[in-house]
Amino acid sequence: MRLRRRALLIGSALLVIVIACVLFNLEGWRATYWAERAASCGVLTFGVAGLTTSTDEAQRAADCFTQAASRCRAVVLRADSTNVDSGATYFFLVESPVSPYGACEVASSWNARSIHQSVGGAAACRSVARQPDALRFSGCGPEGSIILPIVHGGYLTS
Q1: Are 94 and 74 in contact (CB under 8 A)?
Q2: N or C, which end of the chain is more exposed by having fewer CB within 10 Å?
Q3: Which residues partner with 46 through β-bridges?
Q4: What string of pLDDT tens digits covers the 158 residues of the chain?
Q5: Residue 99: HSE in the Cβ half-sphere, 13 Å Cα cutoff
Q6: Which alpha helices (H) appear in the chain, and where do they start and end?
C-alpha cells in the first residue's frame, strides 16, 4: 500500500512537470509544428541596403499572408536579414487550431546570430496589419512590434 502510494505520488509529480513544460513552451511547439506543415507565402530578404526582394514579390507575399490570416489558413512567411557581422531569420506563421477547442493564431519565431552568439524564440502576436508599404506585426512577445517592409529598400525593424 505504501509503495503504491509513493508510485502514484511520483507519477503525479512527473505528469505535473510534463504539463508545465508543455504549457510554458506551447508557442515554440506550435511554431515548429506549423513551420513544417504550412504553405509558403515566400521569402523576404534584407541586406545592408534594406529589402532586396522586389516590391512586387514582397507585396504578393504580404497579400498571401494577410489573406491567409483572415481565413485562418496555415501559411508561413520567412524574412532573412543579413548584415556584415550578424543576421536574423524570422518566420511569421498563421497557425490553424490544433484541436477543436483551439483558436487561430498569428505567431513569430526568430533566430538572431552574430559572431559572438545566437539567440531565438517564438511568441504569439496580437495582430498583423497590411499597410501600403509594410506588414506590421504587433505584440509579438519580447520582440514587441515587428515591421516587415514590402517596398524595395525598406528596413526591417523590431
Answers
A1: yes
A2: N
A3: 51, 81
A4: 676 776 566 655 555 444 444 444 455 666 666 667 789 999 999 998 899 999 999 999 999 999 999 999 999 999 999 988 889 999 999 988 766 777 888 999 888 888 888 888 889 999 999 999 999 999 999 889 999 999 988 888 87
A5: 3
A6: 2-24, 26-37, 55-71
